[in-house]
Design brief:
It is a single chain. The protein is α/β, with parallel strands linked by helices. The strands form four sheets. Strands 1, 2, 14, 15, 16, 19 and 20 form a seven-stranded mixed sheet that branches. Strands 4, 5, 6, 7, 8 and 9 form a six-stranded antiparallel sheet that branches. The protein folds into three domains: 106 residues, no CATH class; 90 residues, PDZ domain (Pdz3 Domain); 254 residues, 2-enoyl-CoA Hydratase, Chain A, domain 1 (Alpha-Beta Complex). The longest helix is centred in the N-terminal third of the chain and has 19 residues. 33% of the residues lie in helices and 22% in strands. It comes from Azospirillum brasilense. Pfam families: PDZ_6, Peptidase_S41. Belongs to the peptidase S41A family. This is S41 family peptidase.
Length: 477
């Protein structure tokens, strides 16, 4: 997820827009009255009504796409009625949340209502420590289930055998189909030490898998590093408040280990679900300097350009390779797209996911939060990322990173996952295709080897290209 953290306020509306919104809200009050024993509409000071009205105002003023207040209320009322049909004992807070979730689900897959605890969890994740399972999920439009985008190494989910591409069909005794993302996440969450049983459907496996995952305090490691045959290897698992600093420290540590005699650098962004937008910009800045890195375009603001704040490249004169796959998402795509467009790096692997939108957290009354899609972002070339993703310079399949010893091999590594085409903008102009090379041109020794489970072909290809100077010869032609 690409987050613009902060607390925003809704913009003022013109009188005619306000009249239409007021009329839509009045229709909502009348519809809500049919759910109450008294059959009376909630007052305009009722906390549940205030919550709904607050969310509606934010959607109308700040969401990426213009929306009709009457259509939004129609969707919300449908959510109300469905909730009451499914649960006759649902209270007014639960009904309100269902109305809001239905309304937000009609906008895009990423917007959602956050309760106070969820807002706190997101803050904890950005700090790098939180209770949970250690996996990132997103709705799967085709199946109606939850798709696992990534399960970080050494987290409860990964240790239990959950991996990217799995579809979560059931959480404990609750079927996922029909649940909103917020409801599903709330079902998974709980205190550290408790367990959750997940029924998984795995691509290529006809037999569902049942796994039990125990929640723990997850201390995330956003940056991992090691030397790989004289080449610096840095893996970024996600972007939190520490990521940029840790990338600098990792590179400096490896320079010290080799007396600055590094042959090159590999930046691994595979299975990276994103995170803080500004951290993605800072990481790209470390290798690009003072150039445009990314731009955003929202509905209520002009194009905003984000540039590097330094004139230095920490890996100056070193060849830079970036590893991507369909789990490379959001802020990770900002980094990959900028490095490719600025001809600073070659990308190895498979096309990235294609999530080119920014979500902003709005503070609501009572401590709740609203996660709302407010902008799309574009590469320095002007190309959109949403749905198109980032195309590698060198296609290497399978692109999945093999897990550490003791975890399940990622057999679904060759299965790419991308947004449902039905959710994409049909009028979007595809970005210009990058210059490409084959494995036979840059790493023939790797290309000739048979594909083996657990062998990291993209990494081996990138290292071979750097070590044999084919990388440098290709990029200077």
């Amino acid at each position: 997820m690409l987050l613009a953290m902060g607390f925003e306020a809704a913009c003022a509306m013109l009188p005619t827009e306000r009249d239409r919104t007021d009329a839509a809200l009045e229709r909502y009050r009348v519809a809500f009255a049919t759910m109450r024993p008294s059959a009376l509409p909630p007052t305009t000071s009722d906390p549940n009504y205030v919550l709904f009205a607050d969310v509606l105002q934010h959607v109308l003023s700040s969401h990426l796409k213009p929306a009709d207040p009457e259509r939004l209320v129609d969707t919300a009322v449908a959510g109300l009625r469905k909730k009451q049909q499914d649960d006759r004992t649902a209270g007014e807070r639960a009904l309100t949340e269902s109305a809001i979730e239905a309304m937000l689900a009609s906008l895009d897959p990423y917007s959602g209502l956050l309760d106070t605890e969820h807002v706190r969890d997101i803050r904890d994740q950005m700090h790098g420590e939180f209770p949970g399972l250690g996996m990132v999920v997103t709705p799967d439009d085709r199946s109606g289930l939850l798709r696992v985008v990534s399960a970080d190494v050494n987290t409860p989910a990964a240790r239990a055998g959950v991996r990217a591409g799995d579809l979560i069909a059931r959480i404990d005794d609750r079927e996922v189909n029909g649940l909103s993302l917020h409801e599903a996440v709330m079902t998974v969450r709980g205190p550290s030490g408790g367990s959750v049983t997940l029924l998984l459907r795995r691509p290529g496996n006809d037999v569902p898998l049942l796994v039990s995952v125990t929640r723990t305090i997850v201390r995330s490691e956003p940056v991992l590093h090691r030397l790989e045959d004289g080449v610096a290897y840095i893996r970024i698992t996600h972007f939190n408040e520490q990521t940029s600093r840790l990338v600098h420290e990792a590179f400096d540590a490896m320079k010290g280990q080799t007396d600055s005699e590094l042959a090159g650098l590999v930046l691994d962004l595979r299975d990276n679900p994103g995170g803080l937008f500004e951290q993605g910009v800072r990481v790209a800045d470390a290798f690009l300097g003072a150039v445009d890195i990314v731009s955003t375009r929202g509905r209520v603001s002009d194009v905003q350009h984000y540039s590097g704040g330094t004139d230095d490249d920490v890996a100056r004169d070193l060849p830079l390779a970036v590893l991507i796959d369909s789990g490379t998402t959001s802020a990770a795509e900002v980094v990959a797209g900028a490095l490719q467009d600025r001809h600073r790096a070659l990308l190895f692997g498979e096309r990235s996911y294609g999530k080119g939108s920014v979500q902003t957290i709005f503070q609501l009354a009572g401590g709740d939060g609203l996660l709302l899609t407010t902008a799309r972002y574009f590469r320095p070339s002007g190309g959109p990322v949403e749905c198109f993703g980032i195309v590698p310079n060198v296609t290497v399949s399978p692109a999945g990173r093999p897990p550490p010893s003791g975890t399940w091999i990622r057999a679904a590594a060759s299965v790419e996952t991308h947004p449902d085409p039905a959710t994409c903008d049909p009028d979007a102009v595809a970005p210009p295709p990058p210059r490409t090379w084959t494995m036979a041109e840059l790493c023939p020794e790797v290309a000739r080897r048979p594909v083996q489970s657990g062998v990291d072909r993209p990494l081996h290809c990138a290292v071979a290209a750097i070590r044999t100077n084919r990388f440098e010869r290709a990029t200077t032609k």
